[in-house]
Amino acid sequence: MSAEILTIADHEAAAFGRALTELSAGRPIGLPTETVYGLAGDATDPAAITRIYEAKGRPRFNPLIAHVSDIAMAERQVTFSPLARRLAERFWPGALTLVLPLARYRTVHDLATSGLDTLAVRAPQGFAGRLIGAFGKPLAAPSANLSGRISATTAGHVADDLGDRINLILDAGATPIGVESTILKVEDDVLTLLRPGGIATSDIENAAGREVIRPAGDGRIEAPGMLTSHYAPEAGVALDARHAEPGDAVIRFGGTALDGDGEARIILDLSPSGDFAEAAANLFGYLKKADASGAKIIRVGHVPERDLGEAIVDRLRRAAAPRG
């Protein structure tokens, strides 16, 4: 059976009702957010969380983000320091996930935390935020794709990976940001970047008035998106490429050609003008197009690692990492 796809713009009331029915029954749905499409299920229901893991083929040690409607809903699950609250007030709803200590009487199930004493929380914008408010409980919503594969930025991407595993996909078109949220761990006054994403680290530092540090790189999984190999197409991925071989797929940035790319199987440019926001929005879709071309190697030109470029390069490195 294939999932029903409902276009929100044409059928918002129906989409709302169908989504609430599925979620209340413990069945995950394909849900658009401003970052990527999520596979959303009731974060307080162990059966729903288990169905998310099973549908994605996701390792149980990889924790999930609890998506909330607002700070008040988050407060029932985690403990905010003054700095964490200031960041939530500045960036929510939006593409910032905060990793905070678990509240004593939380309702998010332990399966979503993978046994950690912290929980990742985010308040998404738009339809997703309104749906969570109406549902009245947090939604666990990892990216709506098979585990380790390229994240979904359209309803069609969700259907390709999960269409035979869920009943409902809500379609809001292509996601505007195109990469997952920035994940920030807040411990008192210390800010640690666990995953770069849709909010630039420099913007967080300006709002917080302090430096964001990078993790020690000890291999601990404290948040989603920290697996070394992730976002992987079938083809191999070569980064900072300067030349291409005949039959390769080429992904450029800023209009910069690769030597020999005239004989490439496909040429895509994340942003001919070098705009990081445009590049982020195109990243996963272009990786999918390059992969679908049949090329054995995807050659990716240099992307500067600043602003949203940090998130783009992070995803590309994980896509290019050796696969277990």
UniProtKB/TrEMBL annotation:
It catalyses: L-threonine + hydrogencarbonate + ATP = L-threonylcarbamoyladenylate + diphosphate + H2O. Keywords: ATP-binding, Cytoplasm, Nucleotide-binding, Nucleotidyltransferase, Transferase, tRNA processing. It is found in: Cytoplasm. Its main location: cytoplasm. It comes from the Bacteria. Residues 13-199 form the YrdC-like domain. GO terms for cellular component: cytoplasm. ATP binds at R58, N62, T118, S143, S151, R195, Y231. Pfam families: Sua5_C (PF03481), Sua5_yciO_yrdC (PF01300). Gene3D superfamilies: DHBP synthase, Threonylcarbamoyl-AMP synthase, C-terminal domain. GO terms for molecular function: ATP binding; double-stranded RNA binding; L-threonylcarbamoyladenylate synthase; tRNA binding. Its EC number is 2.7.7.87. One of its GO terms (biological process) is regulation of translational fidelity. L-threonine binds at T35, H67, R122, A141, S181. Belongs to the SUA5 family. Required for the formation of a threonylcarbamoyl group on adenosine at position 37 (t(6)A37) in tRNAs that read codons beginning with adenine. This is Threonylcarbamoyl-AMP synthase.
